[in-house]
Amino acid sequence: MTEQRIGIIDIGSNSIRLVVYERTTNGAHRVADSSKRAARLSEQIDEDGRLAGAALDELIDTLTHFTLICNHNHTDHIRAVATAAIRNATNRSEILERIQRDTGLSIELLSGEEEASYGFLGMINSLNIRDGFLVDIGGGSTEVSLFRNRALVRSVSFPFGCVSLNKRFCTKGMLSDENLKELEAYVTEAIRHEPWITQSPGLPLVGVGGTVRAVGKIHQAAYKYPFPLTHNYSISNQQTDELFDQMRKLPLEKRRKLPGLSKDRADVIVPGAAILRLLFRAAKATHYRICGAGLRDGLFHATRFPTHPKLNDVLEYSLNNLSALHPQAPKQHVMQVNRLALELYDVMNDIHSLPSQARILMDTASRLFRIGASIDYYEYARHSYYLIINSQLNGLTHREMIMTAAIASYKGKGRARQHIAEYKELLKESDMDVIYKLGTLLQLSAALDRTETQAIGQLNVQLVGTQLLLRPIQPRDSLAVERREVEELSSEFKKLWGVIPILHFG
Questions:
Q1: Are 95 and 157 found together in one domain?
Q2: Which label site among 111, 167, 243, 374 has the fewest CB atoms less than 10 Å from its CB?
Q3: CB neighbours (10 Å) of residue 366?
Q4: How far apart are CA 225 and CA 149, in angstroms?
């Protein structure tokens, strides 16, 4: 399988973005390059609804720059799309012709419904969620979708976004009380024409796009949240309202210095957050959930997997992808350890009844425990921890990612506590007990294939009093090394599980 690269260019109303996705020789997908330029196209539409002159020249310049980056990356295919600003421009045909002539790019002009559909695809392929509302607040449009059982049910594209409402209702980045009332009346009236938004109360409001990510970053900075990832981050309604009031009162210059907020979004964050709050109230949602993926990710999946763009299992895809990115891990050994770990888990869980999610953590950790060998074999546990923590494992919460990393790299209680020290406020003491138990179970599973020969085809596991008897059925080797490794682990294992593992054969 050869390397392949796909360039996705998204001409939004607030910014223009490029992402180059690469398929590696091992079949993994990753971002190879990206670039972003603030554009504010919605602000540059003249009174006749045209985008012309210097604004169009600047757009051409950005797209030329992006095509050069794509050429440098040897992309096989560039897919370029445009959304609300160009969709609503009265001279859109002229704009698209000029882009084609000057850059060679053929631009797809997405309808509001298509924009919502690709945004939904990006979100549903990166979160473990079944039902909810999806909101994407762009610069010139806002897409709202209802999804049930991981399928899109209804969507609408409203013709306003954070840039266009900033232009209409704000003065020098400030939104007065009177203008806030006018903005709220305007957005509420638009929502009134889509009564389905109010008819599914009690669902989460999932946000994609720059506005909601910015709200998440500000919130994390304000609360000193230790895990630096906004994807799959939840915020309550009350916390969002408090942030909104705080941001609206801040003069623009002070708002630019707000921790977590990028300077080029300081003026449009307030009208953007105003839209978010109104949609939350209308939908009678339970909480906000931030998704780091969206339109560009949906376009990638639709381009790369045209017949089956929607994933059946988000975590499974993410796990396979991360494993394929680190092919130095011995595949047969990892598969053997994973199989043994789950067999042992099922026996031990009968007497210890671990939390329901623990088996998923055991499965995930036992498939990733050796990926750190791609950096350094001698310190693979430490590197596996780092890679898991920093490789967005879609389908897991932040807490579950930390626990998975700690289980995969487990070398004793002290080391585990040291590893997760900076994240300890996200874990409960009962989580630490799960980490210790599953960590030693993973150590035992690895010990049973210490020679990495997969000598144990079948294993009979029995609990007899305080002994965990591990009886291999017709092993293909002497297992002398494995027996010694199991003996060395037995003391620590007994402290945590209350039984002594014994590799019993002969």
A1: no
A2: 111
A3: 28
A4: 31
Picking from 453, 475, 494, the residue at the C-terminal end of a domain is 453
- Compute the average pLDDT of residues 163-188: 96
Q: Which residues contact 191 (CB under 8 A, 6 or more apart)?
A: 197, 198, 278, 279, 282
Token pair, residue 71, equals 């050429």
Residue 496 in contact with residue 440, Cβ under 8 Å? yes
Enter the pTM of the model: 0.94
Q: Are residues 277 and 145 in the same domain?
A: yes
Residue range of the domain that includes 343: 315-453
The values of phi and psi at residue 438, to 5°, are -70, -30
Rounded to an integer, what is the distance from CA 211 to the centroid of its chain?
16
Q: Which of 109, 133, 160 is the last residue of a domain?
A: 109
User: How many Å apart are CA 171 and CA 188, to the nearest integer?
Assistant: 21
What is the DSSP code string of 240-302?
HHHHHHHHHHS-HHHHTTSTT--GGGTTTHHHHHHHHHHHHHHHT-S-EEE-S--HHHHHHHH
Residue 147, beta-bridge partner list: 132, 152
DSSP character string of 486-503: HHHHHHHHHHHHSSEEEE
Q: What is the mean pLDDT of residues 167-181?
A: 96
- Nearest CA to 204 out of 265, 270, 289 is that of 289
Residue 318, pLDDT above cutoff 80: yes
CA distance 320 to 38: 35
Q: What does the buried/exposed string (b/e) look like for 291-324 if buried means 16 or more CB atoms within 10 Å of the residue's CB?
A: bbbbbbbbbbbbeeeeeebebeebbebbbebbbb
pLDDT tens-digit series, residues 130-161: 999 999 999 999 999 999 999 999 999 999 99
